[in-house]
Amino acid sequence: MEKEKFLGEFEQFLLLSILKLGDNAYGSAIRQLLAVTINRDVTIGALYTTLERLEKKGLLDSKMGEVTPERGGRAKKYFRITAKGQHALRRSKQALTSMWENVALSQLGCK
Amino acid sequence: MKNPNYSQPPKIASQFLSWALPEALIEPVLGDLSEEYLQRISNNQLIGANYWYWRQAVKSGIQFMFKTQRGFVMFIFSVFLFLGFTLMAMVLASSPSLYMDMQSILIVFPPAIAFTYASTSTKDVKRAFAILFSNDSSQDGQLYISSKRVFSVLGNSGIILGIFMTLIGWVAMGEHLDDMTYFGSAFAVSILTLIYGIALKMLCYVAEQKIQTLSES
Q: What is this model's ipTM?
């Protein structure tokens, strides 16, 4: 049986952004949250590529929302984390926490 | 007073992105970009907002076009590769200017284009190029047949004109076999006409095959 893989760094950032934004998790809001919180200016293309991948894996689901004038009459696409997505996020966090246990950066040669 | 046009994102950038994006993402992605563009405009960052929009559209568009418009990208790439290698061969052989002859160009290309319009129609020609560049495989089968015919006529007219004009050149050369100065230049022009005809036929053959592939997918 194939081992379940851990989430990548950017995947974790996206899932956490969606959790933070709650019902308002759509492309532009996620992009701006990443820019403000971790100073990461991602292109909208890179963002949607990863969101689509996560959706295909079943970690996210999405629905089209309302049309607004400031969007040129185009609808928003809202994202929500599935139970499988929450499990993957928790698993990745636990793995990182375990790996960081009893590690001091000075032991790795950092001053 | 603010110009209302300023709130519109750059049109060409939006069109490029719409072309490159998968159908399902056009609405949310363009909507997200419009929304953020408007926020930047309202902060009086017109130049910055335009630069930001273009950067987002170009980078995202390039990222998606290799997936959604792969056939078209490969077609353009192969044409540039062909032109690049042809130019390299010309440079290595002597000089590219040796292969440029306006007389031969005028003998092959305008008549071939005129024959194409005459035997198909302006509408067919426009649709053939639109299909070739759109990578659209969802059209009616008859449209692909008429588009293939456009490139077939264009390519075949090109090569037949090339052969025909080469033979005319050889007849003229035969009249002046004793004058090598005339013979040399006339021979070069006649062969160039054939080369242009073959090049046009080759490009049209690739276009024809691409449309065939689209019709079968």
A: 0.86
